[in-house]
Structures are given as structure tokens and as C-alpha cells.
Amino acid sequence: MLKKLWICGALLCAGLFYGQQKETAIDTLDEVVLIDSKFKLKRENSGKVITKITARELERSSGQSLPEVINRVSGIEINGARSNDGQNLGYYVRGGRNRQVVILIDGIQVSDPSSISNDFDLRLLPLDQVASIEIIKGASSTLYGSGAAAAVINITTKSPKNKKIGMQLQSVLGTNQTQNNPNYNIAQFDNSVGISGRLSKFDYQVNFSNRYSENMSAVRSENKEENFGDNLFSKYNVYARVGYKISEKLKFYFYGNYDDFESSFDDAFMYADANNILDSQQFRTGSHWVANYKNGSFIFSDSYSELKREIISDYPSKYDSEVYAFDAHNKYIFNEKFHTIIGLNGVFSSFNSYSIPYGETDFTQTVSEDVASFNVIDPYVNMVYVSGRGFNLNTGARLNIHSEYGTNLVYNMNPSYNFKLKDGNLKALASYSTAYITPSLFQLYDSTYGNTNLDPEESSTIEAGVEFSSDALRFSTVYFNRETTNYIDFITVDPDNFISEYRNIDETFRASGVELELDYIFSEALNIKTNYTFTEAEERFALRIPKHKINASINYNFASNSFVSLTYQFNDDRTDSYFDNETFESKQVKLKSYNLLDFYISHKVNEHVKIFGGVSNLTNASYEEVYRFNTRGRNARFGLALNF
């Protein structure tokens, strides 16, 4: 089997030399971006280097998870994406962590106030429901509020089909094992079904998906011949949406979403086999309204979420949280040169926690939402100037009004200049942005580790770079430098009595680096995509972040309805820390670099049926994302997609 896969990979590489060499128009020059201004702008007029994962690219990732897809973007390391399905995810962008990354679904921020970093768990969103993803790196607090210090990830879900009734079905079977497991058993199952359509001015959509995996332990035994018991993972998701187009100027939709996943996990403190359980549920509902008028539009989006988590272990605990978020903004176009936005963003969060005291059997409330809550109301303004002669400017400011921390102003300045060339555009860009990251409710009020004396983090980011775009080529290079003060870290304050808490660090944390991206289209059949990231960050704050990271893919349509790709990833050495059970101290350890090679193939039998498959980690490389935790070895997946 492996020999055949290597032959396929060799044939794919040979396509680099023997593929058709005629030029193609992929509309790179006319690509439209939205995330950096909330206006639809041509890429050449945007002052940022924005990564856009299109529907076509997502379709070619069938059977993978959302974190796995985003993990291929330059400057981003999603730690845990290659581990057991139940592994917690770390969003490491430009030396930052989860609390410095904002995740949007259809333009509205999502979060979990009961989590340590107030972050949204990307495992909850199935990839088959996603239409596209836009990612902007650097401080973006002006448009997206507190927490948008390192990146904003905007996930756009699929819209209803433009016919009375349409149906999509997909089923994927795969293996799920570590490098030292020779038994290729079917141990991962993904299924989804979606029904949607439009009837006159009314549209509707219903999606259901589930994922189940087994055959893999979270923690790795020090004895290579010993395998801990399986840690099972089970998840399902239900999404429904109804919309109505009142007129050409006014439309809206309402949606509801329910997620449930259960995962067993080992004892990470003692690195021992265990059958602990994490049970998590999320209910999310909201609406989206668009009112168009002559020179602009008014957009209102909101989201209400209830989240519940229960941990069943020797130290059982429960968490529940509520968050309501809204964003209302008015877009106004004065003329072809001036675009403005005036908006108001609000987030209202609270959480409760419960635990069982030692020697007792019933849960006792340890944190109450009467105390653990805060509100944020942010007015903001943004302006885009497109001169038409090459010079562009994106600038804005936001007043963060926090119920616990008062007011704070953040702003951005983002000039760029576009040079029209014979065969494309060359864009030079620079930016200076500030960000304001308030502590999470958990960091403030947790009964064991919380600290109500925490101050917000403040950061500033400088960027400079160039981007060249043509019909067949896009190349960019960006330098970034980010400084953070009042950095919040988890500190052991009394080692003898095992007392730790969250505290501000009285020093400046700096992270800098370079991101390179290259997309080249050889022909209608063949293209390559590659990126390289260099990140220089202080080891104390940059755990699990590689200094050098490379992603590359070769994509080849060897027939009109057949596609094959080979994807490569290199992660440099990283630093991790662990608690030594013998010395009772936190120690640092080096995680070795690794190389991963993935293979994917798909074939459209006809307009309704597609079959696909792939092998991840072709060489069965052994590596760690987290010290003493397992990662996936060589695994295969096979799938069938129906579209009617």
C-alpha cells in the first residue's frame, strides 16, 4: 500500500515538469477581501496581506477538521490539531496565544466565558458547514474589539442552495492511530447531511453532522511497548437557518445551532492512563439583518450562546456560561475614494462553576455569575481612502468601554501603495495598530487560580511588507513586530504549598518575525502553494511555537474531474514545559522538529457523486505537539459525497 502511495506522489511531482504550461486567468487581480475593512475591496486596495481559504480549497480538504485546515496558514500554529480528537487546541499566532485571537462566525464574535482564555473551540464547527475563511494577522482591535491582538479568523458558513430543495450528504471512514500501532482498523467516522433551498423570497437550511473516533490514547506511556487505553471522542452538531428577503433593500435570517461532544482523557498531571470524561454542550442562536440604501448599508448581527462543560475525574467540576454579542455598523460610501464605517459592538458575559469538596459527594458552587460577569460596549469608526492613483489608507479608532476596566482607546494606521505593472500589481504596505486584551472571567474569578487584581494586557504591532499579484502568481513578504505589556501568565507563587495564580508580568514581551507566501499557477491543471514563517519570541512566553515553519502543497487535476495533491509541513524545534512529579517543579523540555507529508485524491463520478481519499503522515513520522502526549501516525481516510 505504502509503495503505491509513493508512486502516486512521484507521478504528482513529475507533473511539475510535464503539466501544460499555458497561462490561466484565476482572477487573482480581481480578488475581493472583506475582513480588514468590512468593505468589499479589491486585494490591491487592501493595506494588509490577507489569507483567504476558498470554497474550492475547503472542498479539497474533505474529511479533515477545521483546525487542520487553518493550521496550514502562514504565521499560525494550532497546537493539538494533529493529536487525539479530544486534545485542547492552542491558537499560536505571531507569538501570541488563544486570548489574543478573535474568532468570528459570519461576522459575529464567538467565545466561551468559562474557559481560561475566553476562546471558542474550533472543534465545535464542522468543516462541511464552512463556505470560506478569511484570516487577518496583526492587531485588529479597531474593528473587532478586545482580544484581536494577534489575528482575526472570520468563518463564513454556507448559504442555502439557489433552488427549491437541495441536499448534500457526506460520509468518511478512516483509521486513527499513533506511530507505534500497526493495526489499521477503521476507527474514525464522519457523517453529515444538509438540506437547503429557496422558495421565492424565503430560504431555509438544516444541517446535521457527527464525528466519532477511537483507537488512540491521549497520553503516551514512557514504555514504548505499553499502550494506554483508548480515549474515545464523540461529537454531533445541528444547525438550522431561515431567512426572508423583504425587498431588494431589506433582508434577514435567524439561525440556531447545537453542539455536543464527549471526550475521554488521561491524567495529564501524572502522565497516567485514566478514563476521565469531558462533556461539553453549546447552544447558539442569533440573527443577521441587512438594510441597503443609496450610498450604503446598515448591518446588524447578534449571537446568544449558552455553554455547559462537565469534567468527570478525581476532581469533578462543572462550568456553565452565557454570552450575548452584537455588532451594528453603518457603511457609507461618499464616493469611489472614501468609504466609512461607524459601528457599535457589545459583549455581555458571565459564568458559574461548581466542584465537589474533598470528602463530600455533592457539587458546591465555587463561582457565581453574580460576581463573574462583565459587559463591554465599544463604539468604533473606520475610514478607507482609495486614491485611484496608487495610494490607499485604512485608519480607525475604537473606544473600549469595559464595566470593570473603564475606557481605553485603540487605533490603527494602515497606508499602502499599489504600483501598476505590465503583468500585475506590486503593493507596498505598512501598519501600526494597538490592541487591548482584558483578562478572562476565569482568570479573574476562578476560586483556585483567579486574581481580581489583574490589569489588562496592552499591545502594539508594526507591520511592513510587499505583495505582488498577477493572473498566475501571488507572492508576499511581511515583517511584523509586536510588543505586549502587562502580560498575564500562570505563576507559582508558593511552591511549598502548591499555590499558583494568574498574574501580570512586569516586563515587555516582544515577538517579531517574517511571513512569506507564494501561490503559483503553472496551468489550468497544476498549481503550487507554499509559505514560510519565522517567529522570534522569548521562550518563557512562546512555549510550543516553532521558530521556523514551512507549508507547501502541489495540486494537480490529472483529468477534468480528478484531483490529487501532496502537502508538506515542517515544524522546527519548540520549547514546552511540564510539572515534574518528583521535584514538584515546572521544567522546560525541547520538542524535536518534524516533517509531515500528506496525500489526497478525489474524483467526481458525475455532477452528483464524488469519491475521495487520503493518507496523512505518509512516512509515519514520530513527533510531539505537547510533551508526553500522542500524535497521529500514518492514517488513511476514504469518503463519499453526494450533491443533489
Report on the architecture of this protein.
By secondary structure, the chain is mainly beta. The chain has one domain: Maltoporin, Chain A. Helix content is 6%, strand content 57%. The protein contains 5 helices and 36 strands. The strands form 6 sheets. The protein has a 22-stranded antiparallel β-barrel. The longest helix has 17 residues.
Q: What's the helical proportion of residues?
A: under 10%
What is CATH's topology name? Maltoporin, Chain A
Number of helices: 5
CATH-scheme architecture: Beta Barrel
Q: So what's the CATH class? A: Mainly Beta
Low-confidence runs (pLDDT<50, min 5 residues)?
1-27
Mean pLDDT: 89
- Tell the overall outline: globular
Main sheet specs: 22 strands, antiparallel, barrel
Would you tell me the structural class of the helices and strands? mainly beta
Q: What is the percentage of strand-forming residues?
A: over 45%
- CATH superfamily placement: TonB-dependent receptor, beta-barrel domain
Rg calculated over all Cα atoms = 24 Å
Q: Compute the number of structural domains.
A: 1
Quote the distance from N terminus to C terminus. Answer: 33 Å
Number of distinct beta strands: 36
Give the key terms.
five-stranded mixed β-sheet, 5 helices, 22-stranded antiparallel β-barrel, disordered N terminus, 644 residues, 36 strands, Maltoporin, Chain A, globular, mainly beta
